[in-house]
Amino acid sequence: MKVVVIGSGMAALGAAHQLRSEGVAPVLYDKRPFPGGHTASFRHPTGFVFDDGPHISFTKNERLRDLLAESVGGAYETPQCRVNNHWRGHWIKHPAQCNLYGLPEKLIAEVIAEFEALQEAPIPEIRNYADWLVATYGETFSRTFPMEYGLKYHTCAAEEMTTDWLGPRLYKPDLDEVRYGATHPETPEVHYVSHFRYPTRGGFYSYLEPWVDDADLYLDHELVAVDPSDRRLHFANGRETDYDRLISSIPLPALVPMVAGAPADVIEAASRLACTRCMTVNVGVAREDISEHQWTYFYDRDYFFTRLSFPHLFSPETVPPGTSAIQAECYYSDKYRPIDVTPEECIERVVRDLRRCGLVREDDEILMTEVRPIRWANVIFDLDRPAALETVHGFLDDVGIRWAGRYGEWGYLWTDQSFVSGERAAAKVLSGGTS
Length: 435
Ligand SMILES: Cc1cc2nc3c(=O)[nH]c(=O)nc-3n(C[C@H](O)[C@H](O)[C@H](O)COP(=O)(O)OP(=O)(O)OC[C@H]3O[C@@H](n4cnc5c(N)ncnc54)[C@H](O)[C@@H]3O)c2cc1C
What we know:
Layout: E1 3-6, H1 10-21, E2 27-29, E3 41-43, E4 49-51, H2 62-71, E5 76-77, E6 83-87, E7 90-93, H3 105-120, H4 129-137, H5 139-144, H6 146-154, H7 175-183, E8 198-199, H8 209-214, E9 216-218, E10 223-227, E11 232-235, E12 240-242, E13 245-248, H9 252-255, H10 264-271, E14 276-285, E15 295-298, E16 307-309, E17 324-333, H11 343-356, E18 366-374, H12 385-398, E19 401-403, H13 406-409, H14 415-430
Parallel strand pairs: 1-2, 1-13, 2-9, 6-15, 13-19
Antiparallel strand pairs: 3-4, 5-8, 6-7, 10-11, 11-12, 14-17, 14-18, 15-16, 16-17
The chain binds flavin-adenine dinucleotide.
């Protein structure tokens, strides 16, 4: 049986791993000239190593933890997670809802009064993410913090979004925690990630390297057409191949229009699936004590970036000695906030705001800057998604194309979940099914 897997990221490699364990050797194709998908890492000529967007591993799946540890021969770091927020000049411990200490007194009083009132309030109808936020944290906190952050990160208003992506992402404190955090600078750690792992050398991609080495992988093969009736694939470089079973980790809005015979309503449904684009700006600075936190959320609209990460705090070996690395994420989406800046402007604005918030000082030497646009970043859980996704998945199931990974499931999957999604897809196609 010839199984073809499209992609070479976590999902495709999860599928290949599962297939090989069942005695099937799949063939993988990826459009890019390098493997790894979103989990690729790049070494800049100045010696800085950046991932394709910041990537850390915080999986609770023991089997995956062991697999990843084995991949890098046990050479990984295990830092304790330190996260903070920046809002109107205040640096706030994360999560803000139970770390209000030092914020304007009027704001704290309003947040606590509303939080108290919520304890007695009947549970309201939750129609969208905005309703959920207000029912969980009250109006003032919601409108000041998560709704502002959400607008920058998801690119659409909370009223436009569902709540099925939340999982443990937003911490729900009790009233005592909110009151305590408003009056004490030190509070217990409650972030859903307490420690994470990161390869000591080579960036996140090091985790994938042994799997890529084992794979029968063809790079520079962009799939442009799929004919499910005669099970044939066509690539942009003119090559063609056939398959018995097909697993795809391609983003659904890109996959569906290339499937021969896809009905207009399915193509239209795929076009309604929204995803953010990320302009990732990498900056190397000649000073090592830039930040104590591995990442920081920025709430103010006039700050260009949404989140900063500091990869030298993932592993010191990602940077030259005595330096710091900063990775800024700036979000757009075709549906809600089309890109209106050039890569050069992105760099200018990021450097300007790094100086404005004081992380980079006027006399700091900037050793490198670069922009890496990410075409498919985070799936937007807008109100269009559930129905459109059902239509698209139903069609792919009917024509025997098995979808996998973050952009095949069209969910908020982390690396480990994408790998497992690939494994599940492999088990499915071997058992003769796709759905
Ligand atoms: C900014 C950002 C930060 C993140 N941080 C974390 C984190 O800290 N921890 C974590 O666990 N997860 C994180 N994630 C999630 C993580 O990136 C994903 O779960 C995972 O990498 C998705 O893997 P995948 O294989 O499903 O998709 P991808 O890695 O996108 O793989 C899809 C592959 O398909 C290929 N492809 C696309 N179209 C074609 C075509 N037409 N022909 C051939 N090949 C094609 C692509 O080149 C790519 O290699 C983050 C995601 C983003 C965007």
